[in-house]
Backbone:
């Protein structure tokens, strides 16, 4: 790893923090978060140690899908501020060393977008071909319907113009037709616009739908992604695409751009995430270990984005029905916690019953997994959900800054968590003062993650520990090694770590004080506390542990 390389390829060990401007901080006392409020909180985010903010859609919207239904790609929704406020925010974020990416939702527009209004006005409209129309759509395959609670087809009849239009998601979100070169040009223009205003890239919504559900079918769908990426790189080297690509590993490699790495820079590891939850439910490392062993290596400079929760349902769609039921039983047994028959509408701390030791272990595991961690705002304080909110909105609650909420000076427009997860119990201000808090734990994990680039950059190997409840792996890069172990169970466990090549080395614990010597044979036995976490830096006895890490940063 050359000295400047890891900062050129900044995303590879970034810490990405996803937030919705609408729920983060209200700066103008109307109960809705906005850019002015967010800008006030930048120092908090910088202090937490995250390196890249991912903004959920903040564009003008009728808000029927929480902003994922856009009516203007070149502006800011008036409820959240103005373009001027956006630029002030960007300037402040950059001043504090934070990069910013935003959702790119171009699989579809809102049906209220002027393009769609024009396109549906007549079959002869010049914009007709910007969307996907059919006189006789193929019969629906129920698997294609993403939101089965609201939709039973992906085609909707447009009475006015007498044809059906395609909508992969809700019927108010007609799919754009990227087979049309004018649409592809416009998408590039949108990217160019926001990069000019300082964005370092985009989280691309619904990527498989974007390149597949078009008419006529694209001969080379991946060429479109490669073209977009090339366009971005020409405009701004080091800009990235972070892709929502929830497909099997074998199909996913194509989205990175096979061996080339010239398409989606980072893909979310949806499979690893689902298997991690299965392991957590079973208190057994097996499922996660298997996923990591099967996970393809991303091409050079590409990366996996690892996460445990996001803003959507906790989707368990890639598990078997039995596995899904196991997780439902463990973490969301009542029906109102479940959604679409495939997921949970809860946040992590409530799923883990508020057990701080277990919650800390789960996040320690997340930060140690090979890849770039992505967290959803509020995870750092253990923010809960409000099941009274509709559907996926349950987890999109206002951030809790202080005992009285602190999100707004007036009543927040959104429902807030209650009881043990209400603001009086869960908030930033209290946790800042408490050295044992989850917030402090996150700060430590982020600091250690950044100090251990081996985790993100290295060659990772899952270790067989002889103890089913203990998940362990090692990451090696340029002669430096970090060994990590997590006890998924709530009882103490003994694990055996076979550390080839590390006989005679010392293991220094990076989270708590302590060292362990590795016997000459390279096999070390460790005792793990209930839900214990160990991040161990290996160093030769002649080298101080702090000198044993990969130096080139
Ligand atoms: C993505 C988003 C989700 C949205 C959908 C339609 O899956 O994550 O929130 O509803 O796309 O845009």
Residues:
């Amino acid at each position: 790893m050359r000295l400047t390389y890891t900062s050129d390829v900044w995303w590879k060990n970034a810490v990405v923090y996803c937030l919705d401007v609408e729920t983060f901080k209200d700066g103008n006392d109307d109960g809705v978060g906005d850019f002015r409020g967010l800008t006030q909180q930048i120092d908090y985010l910088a202090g937490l140690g995250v390196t890249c903010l991912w903004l959920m859609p903040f564009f003008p919207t009728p808000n029927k899908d929480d902003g994922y239904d856009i009516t203007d790609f070149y502006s800011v929704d008036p409820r959240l501020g103005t373009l001027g406020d956006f630029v002030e925010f960007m300037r402040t974020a950059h001043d504090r060393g934070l990069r910013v990416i935003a959702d790119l939702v171009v699989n579809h527009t809102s049906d209220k977008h002027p393009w769609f209004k024009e396109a549906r006005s007549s079959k002869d409209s010049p914009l007709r071909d910007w969307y996907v129309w059919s006189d006789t759509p193929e019969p629906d395959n129920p698997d294609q319907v993403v939101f089965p609670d609201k939709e039973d087809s992906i085609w909707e009849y447009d009475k006015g113009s007498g044809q059906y239009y395609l909508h992969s998601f809700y019927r108010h979100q007609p799919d754009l037709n990227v087979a049309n070169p004018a649409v592809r040009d416009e998408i590039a223009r949108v990217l160019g616009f926001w990069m000019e205003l300082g964005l370092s890239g985009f989280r691309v919504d619904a990527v498989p739908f974007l390149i597949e559900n078009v008419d006529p079918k694209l001969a080379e769908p991946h060429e479109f992604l490669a073209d977009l990426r090339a366009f971005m790189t020409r405009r701004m080297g080091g800009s990235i695409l972070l892709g929502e690509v929830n497909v099997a590993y074998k199909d996913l490699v194509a989205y990175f751009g096979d061996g080339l790495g010239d398409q989606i820079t980072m893909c979310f590891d949806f499979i690893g995430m689902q298997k991690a939850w299965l392991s957590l439910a079973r208190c057994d490392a097996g499922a996660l270990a298997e996923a990591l062993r099967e996970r393809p290596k991303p091409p050079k400079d590409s990366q996996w984005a690892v996460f445990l929760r996001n803003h959507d349902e906790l989707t368990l769609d890639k598990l078997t029905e039995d596995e899904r039921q196991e997780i439902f039983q463990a973490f969301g047994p009542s029906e109102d916690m479940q959604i679409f028959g495939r997921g949970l509408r809860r946040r992590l701390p409530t799923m883990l019953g508020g057990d701080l030791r277990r919650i800390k272990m789960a996040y320690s595991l997340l930060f140690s997994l090979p890849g770039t961690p992505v967290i959803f705002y509020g995870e750092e304080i253990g923010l809960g959900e409000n099941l009274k909110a509709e559907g996926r909105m349950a987890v999109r609650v206002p951030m809790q800054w202080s005992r009285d909420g602190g999100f707004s000076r007036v009543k927040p427009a959104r429902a807030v968590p209650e009881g043990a997860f209400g603001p009086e119990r869960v908030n930033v201000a209290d946790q800042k003062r408490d050295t044992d808090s989850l917030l402090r734990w996150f700060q430590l994990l982020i600091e250690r993650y950044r100090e251990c680039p081996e985790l993100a950059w290295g060659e990772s190997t899952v270790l067989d520990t002889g103890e089913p409840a203990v998940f362990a792996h090692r990451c090696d890069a340029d002669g430096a090694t970090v060994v990590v172990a997590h006890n998924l169970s709530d009882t103490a466990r003994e694990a055996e770590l076979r550390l080839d090549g590390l006989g005679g080395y010392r293991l220094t614990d990076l989270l708590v004080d302590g060292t362990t010597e590795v016997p000459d044979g390279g096999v070390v036995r460790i005792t793990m506390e209930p839900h214990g976490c160990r991040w161990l830096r290996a160093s030769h006895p002649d080298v101080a542990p702090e000198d044993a890490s990969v130096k080139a940063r």
